[in-house]
C-alpha cells in the first residue's frame, strides 16, 4: 500500500531522515519506534505531505504522491491523528466529525449556492448519519453534543481519530496515540484500532513510545535511530535485536 | 539621472540617515508595544505627529528653547502613552481585533484634534538655519541634519543602556522575549505594559520632534509614519533591536537616495516592492527568529 | 422560536421596501446621495467580510477598489464600451488582478497578510497616481459617463443622469451582489470557517486551505471592484491621491465599519457601514470636530459591544432578562419580609 524509497530530509546541514526505505502492506498495522528526536515525526510529516523530502519518493497505492499537498493525500486516502489534540475546539464533537465528512460528502457547489433545498437536506442527512456511525464506533456517541474543548483528554484523542476516520482513509497515521492514557484507555484504543483494521481494512502506521502496547498491537515494526532505519521485522525479532537495545540504552545514557 | 552632483548624493545620504533613524525610533516603539502587549497600536503614527506639534507649540508659540520644548514634548507623549495604556488598552483585554479598532478610533480622534487645534497648513520650526553648513572631512553637510542624526543615536543608545542597566529595563526585555515566563517569575504585566507604552510613545515623540525641525509636517503624516514603522519592524524582525536598526537605516537610505537618483515614482513604488519581496522570502525579517 | 425568524424576515422586507420607496417619498436629494454612498460602502464592507471569513483582515480594499473604478471608467471612456459592460469588466479585471496577486499574497497569514495587502494596495495606487496618462494625476479622471439609458419593454426609457435614477441603479446592483455573497457564504462557508479555526486540521481532512483562501480573496476583490465601478460612474471623477478614496485611511474605515457592525454575522457589515456612513452626516454641524465624535463613538461601541452592533438585540435581551430577575428577587424579598 505505501512504499517509501530512499527518503531523506535535510534541515540545513543536519540529516533528520536519511535514505529510508519502507514498505507497508495493505491491512497491516505497522509500528515506528525509536528514541526521542530520531526523526519519527519527520517521517510521518513526509508521508502525509506536511514536509517535502529533500530526496526520495513516497508512493501510495502505486502512485507517486511525493509532490502532493496534504489535502490531496487526504483525498486519496491518507489520514492522520496528530500528536497534540488538534480539534475545532469551540464546536461540539458531532460538528467536528461532520466537517470531516464534508470531503467525501458529494455536496455540490451549485446545489448549495442556488439553495436547492431538497438536495441540501438530503446531503446534510447523509453527513449526519455517517458522523453518528463513526462516533458510535469510537465510543463517543454519548458525548457527541459536548464542546470539543471540554472533553477529557482520552475522549479528545478519540475525537481526533473520529475526524480522521471521516475522510474514509485507507491509510491512517497515528502519532503517539497512547500518550497520556491510563492502562484502561490504552486497552480500549488497541481494541478500536484492531476493530478498524478488521471491519474497514484500514492500514495503520503508528509512531509510539509505549513499548508494551506496540509490541502487542503491530504486525511489523521499524526502528529508527538518528534518522536511519536500524531494524525492521515482527515484534518478537525486534525485541531481541541487540542493535535496537543498544540504541535505547545509548539514548538513555545520553539522557542522563 | 546623470547630472547629479556628488554633493547632492552626500546630502541625500544624510537625509536618508535622518529618515532612517526616525523610522528606527518609531519601529522600536511599535515592536515593543506589540511584543509586550500583543496589540497593534495603530495610533502610534499620530503620537509621532503629535511629537512634532508639541515641539511646535512650545517652541514657536510659547517661545521656549527647542531642546526644552523637545523634552516637554517627550514627557507629554510618555504621559499620553501611560494614559492610553491604563484607561483604554488595559480595560479592553488583549484581543487583537478589538484593540486594533480602538487604536484606529484613537487615530481618527488625534488626527482631527490636531486639525482643529492647528489647522492643516504644513508647519515647521527650524532650529538652525537650513543653510547652516558644517564641514566634515572636507565635505559640506547640513548642520541641522547632522544634529538630528546625533540626537537620534544618543536617544537609541540611552534606551539601550537604560534597558540593560536598570531592573525595569531588564524586566522589559524578559517580558518581550517570553511574556508568560516573565509573568510566572513575578513581573507585573501591567507595569510592563505601561512602561512599553510610555517608552514607545516617548521614542515616537523624539522622532517627531526632530523630524519637524528639518522637514515640514502636517496633521496627516501619521499614517505614512506608521506604515514606515511597520515596514521596518517586518524587515528587521520584531524580535531583534539590531535588526530593526539595520532595517531602519536601509529603508531610510532607500527613501533618501532613490528619489534623487530615480525620481519619486520609481522610488516610492520600488521601496514597497522590495519590502514585499522580503516579506515573501524571509518573513521573519533579517535577524528575526523563524516561526 | 418561530417568532424570531419571522420578525427577522419581516424587518428585512420592511427595510428593503423602505429603501425602494424612500426617494419617492422624500425627494431630499442630499439624503438620496448619502444613501447611495451607503449602499456602495455596504458592498465594500460585505466583500471585506468574505476575506475575514477565512480568518484574515485585508488592508488592501483601497487598491482593489481603484482597479475596479479606473478599469471600468477607462474602458468606457477610452474604448467607448457601454457602462453596463465596462462595469462588469471592471469587476472581472479586479478579480483577475486578485487572482494573480493572490499567488503572492496567499503565502502570508495573519498580521503579515494584512501588511502584505496594505503594501500591494499602495503599490497599485502609486502606480496609478504616477501613470498620469491613465489617471490624470492630481487633476484626476473627470467626466466619467453614467450608465447608458435602458428601455424597458420597449416602452419606457430610463436615463441615469440624475442622482435619483442612479440611486436605484446602485441599490439594485448592490442588492444583487449581496444576494450572491449571501449564497456564496452558504455554500463555501463551511470550508472557510473550518480553515479559519484550524488550517492544519482542515488540510488533513482534505480541505485545500490555500485554494479556498485564494477563492475567498478573488471573490472578495471581484465585489470590491464592482463597488469601485459603481463609485466611478456615480461620482463622475476619480483621483488616486493619498488623501482620497483609494488610500490607506479609506481601507481602514471599511475595517472599522465591519468590526463595529459585527464581523461574525452577515448583517454586521451592512449595519456597520450603514450607521457609520450616516453618522458623520448627522454630525456635520460639528464641522471639524465631527471626526473626534466619530472616533469616540467607535471606541465606545468597542468597549461595550465587542461583537459589534449586530449583537445589540441579543445584549438587550440578556439585559432585559437580568432586570426581570432582579425585580423578581426584590419582589420575593419584599413578600417574605412581611
Describe this structure in words.
The complex is a heterotrimer of chains A (256), B (291) and C (338). Chain A is 43% helix and 23% strand. Chain A is α/β, with parallel strands linked by helices and 256 residues long. Chain A has two domains: 1-75 and 174-185 and 209-235, P-loop containing nucleotide triphosphate hydrolases (Rossmann fold); 78-169, Rossmann fold. In chain A, the strands form two sheets. Chain A has a six-stranded mixed β-sheet, sandwiched between helices. The radius of gyration of chain A is 19 Å and the shape is globular. Chain B has 291 residues and is mostly helical. Chain B has one domain (12-221). Chain B contains ten helices and two strands; from the N terminus they run H-H-H-H-E-E-H-H-H-H-H-H. A two-stranded antiparallel sheet of chain B has the order 1-2. In chain B, helix 1 (6-37) crosses helix 9, helix 2 runs parallel beside helix 4 and helix 5 packs antiparallel against helix 8. Chain C has helices spanning 2-26, 29-52, 61-78, 83-105, 110-130, 132-135, 163-197, 199-204, 209-235, 248-261, 267-282, 290-304, 312-336, and strands spanning 150-152, 156-158. Chain C folds into two domains: 23-249, no CATH class; 311-338. Chain C is globular. In chain C, helix 10 packs across helix 11 (267-282). Chain C is an all-alpha fold. Chain C has 13 helices and two strands, in the order ααααααββααααααα. The two termini of chain C are 39 Å apart. Chain C has a two-stranded antiparallel sheet with strand order 1-2. Classes of the chains: A alpha/beta (256), B mainly alpha (291), C mainly alpha (338). Chains in contact: A-C, B-C.
